[in-house]
Amino acid sequence: MANEYGFGLGSILAVVIVAMMLLFLPLMMGPVGPPSIPLIMVFPIILLCVFLFLHFTSK
Questions:
Q1: What is the superkingdom listed in this entry's lineage (predicted)?
Q2: 45 to 1, 30, 36, 49, 52: CA distances (angstroms)
Q3: Which residues form the domain of 24?
Q4: Does residue 20 lie within any of the structural domains?
Q5: How confident is the model at residue 17 (pLDDT cuts 50, 70, 90)?
Q6: How many CB atoms lie within 10 A of CB 13?
Q7: Is residue 4 part of a domain?
Q8: Distance CA 37, CA 41 (A)
Q9: How do residues 28-43 score in pLDDT, each as one tens digit?
Q10: What is the value of pTM for the model shown?
């Protein structure tokens, strides 16, 4: 019954790995410039596609 709500060792490990990546990956990056406008627009478009896919497949 420990994994009744989907919150187990795998979930905790995934959160810890993502947190470590957010903390340490920027330290390994060199100086970079700001992203271009088309690259910035990629993220909302991908999120919209995922949202629409989930919306239509849940019916």
A1: Eukaryota
A2: 39, 28, 15, 6, 11
A3: 9-57
A4: yes
A5: very high
A6: 10
A7: no
A8: 6
A9: 877 888 888 988 899 9
A10: 0.47
